[in-house]
Amino acid sequence: MGLLGAHMSIAGGLEKAIERGDEMGCESIQIFTQSSRTWKTNPLTETEINAFKSAFKKAKTVKRVVAHNSYLLNLSTETHEVRKKSVDFFITMMERCEALGIESLITHPGSHLGAGEATGLKKTSQSLNEVLKACSGFKTQILIENTAGQGDCVGHSFEHLKEIVEGTRHPEKIFFCFDTQHAFAAGYDLRQESGYKKTFQEFDRLLSLKKLKAFHLNDALKEIGCRVDRHANLGTGHLGMTVFKCLVNDSRFKSHPMCLETDPGEEMENYRTELAQLRLLISD
Asked: How far apart are CA 263 and CA 205, in angstroms?
């Protein structure tokens, strides 16, 4: 089984996310290191850093912490001002993760905004090159997340991800996070075990499973191939539970963070239910 967990709120302090995850029995958690809806950022204080590291050290169940980048970033645009702002903010988020000792930062590529996929992919590679140069020597890894392909977003196919990585100067420093809903929306049929096997064979052929470091476990509100980024709680959408049963029993991913990004519900009751569902799927 993978390391099951969920995206946790940092309300009240970064360390509270670890405490919330621990209280739920999460083995991994995902966080934003600051609000995901604003460009404004304040430097981390030593007090904040120490509180986070102390909470992680004391955690009873949480073994791994990953971070997610801001949704405001667009690494794929040819508009210089927007792309530069995005790259600069990305670097700041990497610096925060490095200071906190967070192992990886998951990021969406972005949108070409009508300039065409070829341009979007090229600009994404260029943006990543700039981030890697600024963050040379960092322990925090960059994980590109596959997208649903909504609007003009790039990164919805494994071929896109391959082109982005191969366009960087240091492809060995770029890794991946796999989102089940995004893949399904992009046309990868994960509803049956045969489709699961085919999808990850294709991933391995084009990108290498060795570079796959984390998962987002989300059901799909819309049908396969819809290219719409809308998550549903597990077992309530069009994906079904087979893909999740396959994932939690896949020995190749036994040490991978697998985080829910569904609606947590009141007092996170949905998360509790879904984590229990996932654990019931694990074969002895």
From this structure: 33
* Catalytic residue, candidates 182, 196, 256, 271: 182
Q: Are 204 and 241 in contact (CB under 8 A)?
A: no
pLDDT in tens, 166-220: 999 999 999 999 999 999 999 999 999 999 999 999 999 999 999 999 999 999 9
Residue 223: how many CB atoms within 10 A of its CB? 11
Task: State how far the Cα of 47 lies from the Cα of 43, in Å rounded to an integer.
Answer: 11
> Is 196 marked active-site?
no
Tell me, yes or no, if 156 is annotated catalytic: no
Catalytic residue among 231, 256, 271, 274: 231
* Whether 188 is catalytic: no
Q: What is the mean pLDDT of residues 26-45?
A: 94
Determine the pLDDT at residue 223: 98
Q: Is 231 a catalytic residue?
A: yes
Residue 37 has pLDDT above 90, yes or no: no
For the chain, the distance separating the N- and C-terminal CA atoms, rounded to the nearest angstrom, is: 10
- Whether pTM > 0.90 for this model: the answer is yes
- Distance between CA atoms of residues 22 and 62, nearest Å: 6
User: Does the annotation mark 7 as catalytic?
Assistant: no
